[in-house]
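Ticket #4471: structure output looks truncated?

Reporter: J.K.
Steps to reproduce: submitted the chain below (525 residues) through the standard prediction queue, then opened the result file.
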Amino acid sequence: MIVAMPPVATEIPAVELAYALESFFTEHAQAAVLEDGRVIFDMRTARYSIAAEQGRCLLHLWSEERNIVRTICGLQARKDDLRLETRRFGHSRAQMLELVPSCDRRTPSSREITRTRYLHVLDRALLRAFPEWTADGLRTAADLEDSFGPAYARGILTRGTSAWSVIAVNGQETQSTIDGILTLGILWLAYCREHGNGRRLFEGLKIILPPGTGRTTYARVPWLNNAVAKWEVCEFDERAEQITSVDISGGNLHAQLVHAFNPERTLERFRPVIARVTELMRPGLRAATEIRPRGPAEIGFILHGLEFARIQHGLAPGSFARQDEITFGAGANETPLTAETEELFRELTQRLFENRHASGSMRNPLFRLQPERWLESMLRRDIEEIEPALRGDVVYSQVPAFAAGDRAMLDLLTVTQAGRLAVLELKADDSLHLPLQSLDYWSRVRQLQGEHAFQKHGYFPGIKLSEAAPLLYLVAPALRIHPSTDAILRHLSSEVQWELIGLNEDWRKRRKVILRKRGGTGPAT
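Returned output as attached by the reporter:
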């Protein structure tokens, strides 16, 4: 919850200002920082630190594009936004920053105008691109009962008794919305077939994307079931009103894997610095904290999946000397741990310990933050609890795998007792896109497996890995599995052997499998 503040907040103590800022960033993981109405930081990729020292509240924001430090003099809460009165160092004139929950600043009416205009242009372009077919029923109207939102244009192309389902998205939508088109497209194809009353034979789905935005879709389509439907991908240049077919036969992205490291060696190297951090913790938090190496030069301090402090070994600012830097904060917060910020560290970690536990309140943002990482931390320790066929002694979590500049983090990667790779994708909340997001990770592992990358980079030492395609496990609380999940999974290639596992709702206290479904038969032999 955002702390309610009066319109004039110049007398608010620095610690309370820091708490209000931290609460906002914790509550809104996709927040943005505006200056003069312009987005200057997208908090999905930017980082921040907050310090309350010497009676001042300092906010440090940085990203690849810019770096700013401001003194926060006051703030005002307005609905979901926060307006900050700030000053730069050496400047007496106050400046305003605005914290908003999302980067998308378009009004509902402007989004509707853009989508309506796109629909008309798309209709004309379809007639030119497919002159032997008739476009029918193009619309963007929301149909929440069937999971269709207004961001996607839907319709059909008909020619006699033959038909194609069509789904398209305009270039003004966010990249995450564009990446979600295939999920909605599969559901639209299923809807058209179910409601076609047998009068038309729907051959497949045409997916229409803005130019240069289809990398994720191109990688997914080759892993769909060609025996169930035909799949065609096109790009649509709105200015030229031209639709062009895209060849996605080589759509798999080239993936790269980071080298495995020795976690025990990393812990030993950082032992004195770890001791400094743990000495500041109260005994209860110290006992509950997981101290986990993130790489050969980084240690994370984690409470139920939430990293609240970290040690990083790197270059000191302005020199070639190397140093160990300790920062703390949940989410994107990275506040340096110094003598001046030790009290803020104690206060933050105490609130974290009091609110983030199995019997905590869902109303508290620290309890709700990063539920998938909480679930991951529990399954990583007891993975055989949900699937006895998996080996619990070689479980890798948050494995970085790169593809065409994108950094993907595999939730959990392990092997079966027979040495077959197994990919686990976890969701703690309802997600329509779980099946295809899981497919992204599975396809990368499949490619890396074919290149023998896991053996080359030091994973699964001493284990003979099977050449069979990886298994895919989708794990979520049973009541949080989206009703459309089954329909989407049925459209995956038979090579993708998957298992959907539903857990009990109170999984934070104890875990019990209450649902299992399986599909896929593996590659033909």
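Triage note (M.O.): checked the attachment and the full token line is present. The CA atoms of residues 427 and 434 lie 7 Å apart.
Status: closed, working as intended.
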